[in-house]
Recover the amino acids of this structure.
């Protein structure tokens, strides 16, 4: 599967940055999955867990507060108060 860049950014400045295959999170309109070459998107992400499938095909879970997700050309960024 194709990979894309993922950044989880906390407002205190800490950043998790990885190449991933898939991002799954919940928005006010339902669950979404982001893959490589996804169309540009800006949305709210609900507080709770987000799931990523990393480049080793292993699942990683993060608990986050209400956040903003921005998807641009093969990069997904989540900006949150804490994770």
């Amino acid at each position: 599967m194709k990979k894309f860049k993922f950044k989880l950014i906390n407002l205190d400045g800490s950043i998790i940055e990885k190449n991933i295959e898939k991002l799954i999170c919940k928005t006010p309109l339902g669950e979404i999955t982001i893959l490589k070459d996804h169309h540009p998107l800006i949305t709210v992400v609900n507080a709770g867990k987000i799931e990523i499938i990393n480049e080793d095909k292993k699942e990683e879970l993060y608990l986050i507060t209400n956040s903003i997700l921005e998807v641009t050309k093969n990069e997904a960024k989540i900006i949150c108060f804490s994770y």
Notes: Strands lie at 4-10, 15-27, 30-34, 41-45, 48-54, 59-64, 67-72, 75-80. The CA atoms of residues 25 and 50 lie 5 Å apart.
